[in-house]
Structure formats: C-alpha cells, structure tokens
Amino acid sequence: MNKSFDEIVSKVKECGKKTVAVAAAQDEAVLEAVKEAKKQGIADAILVGDESKIREIAASINMDLSEFEIIDEPDMVQASLKAVKLAHDGKVDMYMKGIIDTKNFLKSVLDKEVGLRTGGPLSHVCVFDIPGIDRLMFLTDVAFMTYPTLEDKANIIKNTVPVCKACGIDVPKVAPLAAVEVVNPKMPATVEAAELAKMCEEGQLTDCIVDGPLSLDLAIDPEAAKHKGATDRKIQGDADVLLFPDIHAGNMVYKAIVHMVPGVKNGCILTGTKVPVILTSRSDTFETKVNSIALAAVVAEELKKNQ
C-alpha cells in the first residue's frame, strides 16, 4: 500500500515511462508541471497548442523544448480534439487540460469520434496525503457529478476502485457518508448508503468493502468509532474512500482540507474514461498538478492490466 505521494512517484518510476497529451498547452502553470514531471521521470508530454506562445512561455521558465513533441494548433477547441485523439488512438497514456476552458475540454473528452467515453458515467477522484493519517484518502466526487443518484454512486465506486488498486489498495474500504450512521427514511443519503452496502454484499460492487451510512468521524477516526460502539461495523475509522452524497459536501470537505491542513498533498483525476484525465483547476498549486500527473500515470498502468 502506498501511504504518500512520494511513494506514488516512486511507483511511477517502476512502470514504463508514460506520456501525457496536453490540450492548449500554452499555459505557464501547466508547462511548469510538465517540465517537473519530465525531470522527475514521471512522464513525457506531447504539447498541443499555439506553438509560438508555448515557446515564448517555455523560454521564460527555462524549459528545454527539444525534449518535447509540439503539435502546432492555435485554435483551442481544435487543439483539444487533436490532443484527445492521441489518447483515443493509444498514442499517449493520459490526457491533460491546458489553458482551454473546462466546458470545451470536457466536450473533447466526450466527443463521439475521438473522445474517451467507455459507456459509463465519468466521475472525479481526489487522492489526499494528509499529515496525521497513516494512509492515502480517496475523496469522490468533489468536482464533477453534482447530485449523484444511487446508480451514479455505484458507478463512482466502480470508477474509484481501479484508482485505489493503482495506489496499492487491492480491496478498498468505501464509506458512503451522511450526517449520521443510521438509516433515517427522512434522510435520503442514509437510505442510499445502506443500499450501496447491500449491493456490495450481493456482489454488484466487487473488489471493495462498502459500509454505510457512516458519519465522517466514524469513517476516518478509530477512536470515534470505538467511542460510538461501532465494533460491529465493517469500517471502524479505517475507510480508504469517502463517497460524498453530493458535490456540496464533497467540495467543502475538499477545500477545507486543502486550505486548512498544513503540509497536505493531493492529486486529482477524472475517471470512467479510456485513459486517466488530468483536470486541474487554475487555483491548484504547482505540486498538485505534478501529483495529478503522477497519479494519472499509475492509474494508466493499472488500466492497461485490465484491457
């Protein structure tokens, strides 16, 4: 089991070198991350975008472009389609957003001709390395699926399990979260959490353990689980995956950790796609972008095993 992002980066180096295609690569923050990923041996990159702007930015950050392939396409939408086609055709292992807006980037991911659809819904997973917690934590979905239905939540779990496996957790413990840990018919999140646990018991969700509903403290804190007398639960403060009832809960917890926990590290990818998709925010740190490339690289290796 990998317990930190440093271990994930080490694991990347054990895999064959991966390559990421970047859509509209004329973005300083993204080029900085790509440069660092190359330097650390995490991934090579094909830069698709406005070549003159890419070269101008690269010169300003002392980036040697002789080590990178560049495909000149000034139009951002066309650049995204050319970049995603590289992933669709198996020429690269990952797909990353550059300066293009998220809406058009996602259109390329979902394009029927050259996109990365697999038939199921897409979802987002963020992996956290949190000081004081002895394992990586997987939060989903905090950025993409707004109000997931029961079926959506089942698919989110299916999308997240390979990410856990890529990080060395063969049978992740999944906690569908709610405000309380008992079923209350007036609280739909608790009803759906219990249903997901039942689906797992019946074999509809495989390679994982699902126990819900769980309150956040019971999911991540063994002492809280002990105090609440949760000794009969499958998860007793040792959850790997926190499954949120909606994007509000997920996004608030995500931002609370990012902005209030000193020393925290994280990386995020979009899953349910043919290859991992790196969809970082403009506000994400340089380190988060590099971590996201590393995370995508180990997940790409895991997905290859299942093809």
Structure characterization notes:
Helix 1 packs across helix 11. This protein folds into two domains: 146 residues, Rossmann fold, CATH 3.40.50; 138 residues, Isopropylmalate Dehydrogenase. It has a six-stranded mixed beta sheet, with helices on both faces. Strands 3-2-1-4-11 form a five-stranded parallel beta sheet, with helices on both faces. It is α/β, with parallel strands linked by helices and 307 residues long. It is elongated. It contains eleven helices and eleven strands. A hairpin with a 7-residue loop joins strand 5 and strand 6. The model has no long low-confidence stretch (mean pLDDT 94).
Question: What are the secondary-structure elements, in order, as H or E?
Answer: HEHEHEHEHEEHEHEHHEHEEH
- Under CATH at level 1, the class of the largest domain stands as Alpha Beta
Beta-strand percent range: 15-25%
Number of domains: 2
Approximate shape: elongated
Mean pLDDT: 94
Helix content: 40-55%
Largest sheet: 6 strands, mixed
**Measured distance between first and last alpha carbons:** 23 Å
CATH topology assignment of the largest domain:
Rossmann fold
The neighbouring-strand order within the major sheet is 8-7-9-6-5-10
The unreliable regions are: none
What's the helix count?
11
| Number of DSSP E strands | 11
- Second CATH tier, the architecture of the largest domain: 3-Layer(aba) Sandwich
Radius of gyration: 19 Å
Structural class: alpha/beta
